[in-house]
Design goal:
By secondary structure, the chain is of the alpha/beta class. The chain is built from 17 helices and 18 strands. It has two domains: 2-105 and 321-409, Rossmann fold (3-Layer(aba) Sandwich), CATH 3.40.50.720; 108-315, FAD/NAD(P)-binding domain (3-Layer(bba) Sandwich), CATH 3.50.50.60. Helix content is 32%, strand content 21%. Strand 11 and strand 12 (285-293) form a beta hairpin. The two termini are 38 Å apart. Bound molecules: flavin-adenine dinucleotide.
Length: 449
């Protein structure tokens, strides 16, 4: 009999719980899945874009696991330090082992002047707003900007550019929070510049996501051929790996397309490295240095500069893990050091402590990548069973959490949030509409919604 805590209910946490339950080597394993939020599913709920309904529907698969006997969801339980948090050091007293699946919750910074000017935001802040994350800044976004710059050419950059480019009518049927929908309806954005410091063949987006930008009803995606052809692969992409070649083919098609009379333009820009955000009281432009290929897969600066006007800047240059107080942390990589999922303390595996998902591997891969990652961690944990069963965790963890002053939201509480979100949508004449604030979520969870 093993009692395991999984901290984090995103894909890696749920896949870890599933792998623990489905293994046959150790009978009688029970799993508590803890999350700092009262809602499960991590970035599938709070990151995947609302108009990606098929990927969003993965929540249903994760739900099946969280509803299995032997697994218990305990939301509203932040693990860490600070007021109202559960110290990580307490978990070994309550469980035989703990698997940290806390993701990579913060953004990488550009480290350039003007980055914090009003009007400049991380893509995460924008994503959190349209995803109704309860930690999103309360005022939300007022989209008075005419020109927006998205810095970065990965899939998250594509998501935020696409949401900016869509009209509110295209998002009304999704679960996007109502205030965000109204702000998008009032948006004055006409030009969205998506800018990468390298060339089309080095961009990180995937072709499916890229193609979607070219198929929006109210926006045209544009590429400047004279800029893209700085990339040696532009003229003849035949030698590129197929996934990259498809991207270049899509971009070449856009470069040749005649202009259309649509309300918005998505301008794909390449070989521009941001050097400063300009403005006095608020951002008014981004200054870039023109780069060129250095012949080794990278780029070098040319000493030539150009400015792109922007009243809104969304920075999308990657994610980083956040240290959990009490756990070792590799500051360079933004991950917890591990050996096949076993947490390493000063290079030595620490029995009973494991990691899976983005906090283990860094922020790469698709949702499914977390499944094999979780399986590897669970295999390590099961191999340690003999050492783990020797521990004698104290009574019921949920009761212990309550006496530590926490107020866990269990599965019925989450179901009450879901019901309140359906009722909110019905009142607004929409489908399910997400509740965007802590008060609303906790009130609903406690059946007072
Ligand atoms: C904006 C965005 C869009 C994406 N879109 C797609 C997509 O369309 N398709 C795709 O395949 N992949 C997509 N991904 C990638 C995918 O979301 C990740 O691969 C996946 O979510 C990583 O899983 P995880 O469980 O490691 O982390 P997360 O999903 O981040 O889950 C971590 C969980 O831990 C909880 N947590 C964090 N800290 C604590 C703490 N101290 N105490 C308790 N709980 C804590 C969090 O609340 C969260 O629920 C996207 C990622 C982002 C950022």
């Amino acid at each position: 009999m093993l009692r395991i805590a999984v901290v984090g209910s995103g894909p890696s946490g749920v896949y870890t719980a599933q792998a623990l339950l489905e293994q046959r080597a150790v009978p009688g394993v029970t799993v508590d899945v803890l999350d700092r939020l009262p809602c499960p599913y991590g970035l599938v709920r709070y990151g995947v874009a609302p108009d990606h309904e098929k990927i969003k529907s993965l929540q249903q698969n994760l739900r099946v696991t969280l509803e299995r006997p032997g697994i218990r969801f305990l939301g509203n339980v932040p693990v860490g330090d600070g007021p109202g948090a559960l110290p990580a050091a307490l978990l070994p007293e309550l469980y035989h082992a703990v698997v940290y699946c806390v993701g990579a919750a913060t953004d990488r910074r550009l480290g350039i002047p003007g980055e914090d000017l009003p009007g400049s935001f991380s893509a995460t802040e924008f994503v959190s707003w349209y995803s109704a994350h309860p930690d999103a800044a309360p005022g939300g976004f007022v989209l008075t900007a005419r020109s927006a710059v998205v810095i970065g050419v990965g899939n998250v950059a594509v998501d935020v550019a696409r949401v900016l480019a869509r009209g509110a009518d295209e998002l009304r049927h999704t679960d996007v929070p109502h205030a965000a929908l109204e702000a998008l309806a009032e948006s004055r954005v006409t030009d969205i510049h998506m800018v990468g410091r390298r060339g089309p063949a080095q961009a990180k987006f995937t072709t499916k996501e890229l193609r979607e930008l070219g198929a929006l009803p109210g926006a045209q995606a544009l590429v400047r051929p004279e800029e893209a052809e700085l990339d040696p692969a532009w003229a003849d992409p035949a030698g590129l790996p197929s996934a990259v070649r498809r991207n270049v083919d899509v971009l070449r098609g856009w470069a040749q397309a005649p202009p259309r009379e649509l309300g918005r333009r998505i301008r794909m820009r390449f070989f521009l490295r941001p050097v400063a955000l300009l403005g006095d009281d608020a951002v008014r432009a981004v200054r870039f240095e023109r780069t060129v290929p250095d012949g080794r897969g990278g780029v070098r600066g040319t000493g030539r500069f150009e400015e792109i006007e922007a009243q809104l800047v969304l920075r999308s240059v990657g994610y980083r893990g956040v240290p959990i107080p009490g756990l070792p942390f590799d500051v360079e990589r933004g991950t917890v050091p591990h050996d096949r999922g076993r947490v390493l303390r000063e290079g030595v595996p620490s029995p009973g402590e494991y990691v899976a998902g983005w906090i283990k591997r860094g922020p790469t891969g698709v949702i499914g990548t977390n499944r094999s990652c979780a399986k590897e961690t669970v295999a390590s944990l099961l191999a340690d069973t003999r050492a783990l069963v020797a521990r004698r965790p104290a009574g019921d963890p949920a009761a212990a959490l309550r006496s530590a002053g926490l107020d866990p939201v269990e599965w019925p509480g989450w179901l009450a949030i879901e019901a309140a979100e359906s009722a909110l949508g019905a009142r607004l004449g929409r489908g399910t509409v997400k509740i965007p604030d802590w008060d609303g979520l906790l009130t609903a969870a406690h059946g007072k919604g």
